[in-house]
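User: My advisor asked me to double-check a structure prediction for GAF domain-containing protein before group meeting. I don't want to rely on an old file, so could you generate it fresh from this sequence?
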Amino acid sequence: MRELTSDTLGVLETAALLRELTAGLIAVDDFDAALAELVRITADAVPGVAWCGFTALLAGEPAGVAASDPRLAELDDLGHGGESPAMNAIRRREMTIAADLTTEDRWPAWTDSARRLGVRGVISAPVDVDEQAIGSINLYADRAALLGTRQQLTAMLLAEHAGLLLAAVRDRARRAERAGERDGALLGENVVGQAVGVIMTQRGCPAPEALHVLRSAASSLDIPLREVAERLVTTVSRPRES
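Assistant: Sure, here is a fresh prediction for GAF domain-containing protein from the sequence you gave:
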């Protein structure tokens, strides 16, 4: 059996990281929760990376920060006046690398904070989410010169994959919000609201679950939801024969 080379191992590790990210984010519909999962998985999976953070902007404004270690969260926010590797990556739309912060002078205030927190190297890669949301994924090393070509390639692939996953998360969140609005409108309709109330009483369940039961019945019978609601309310309201 041929011995695995370092390059082959790097490819396998990156593929495993992307699979784990997909599995972790595939059912999430909350953007902040997705960012938290993204930085946790990345920090654990990329060799040479001690911590991971994410800086998010929505319509050009700060929209979220995530950090695998809460102590380092300040490095990913915009508290340094926009002068940071993350903002440099976002503005220039290219990967920003500082392999040794002991000789770095591009972002003095940010670099001082990073050194104080034990960070010695950083890679920030821009992440395009959708037409409104953009960001940067930030990989941190606790020793200088640990972030080489292998980590840079991983950061590039990770940023592209994370953008697709986060776009899907935002899309699911929008669809869930629209579904919630539709449910609210349906519950506001007299006959549907009455039918939901009947099911809640019969089953002892909350309104969303009762509405789901009503929808399932409509789907099974292949008739409109309101018609099922009307039939149920009529049946319950009909006087029993003595």
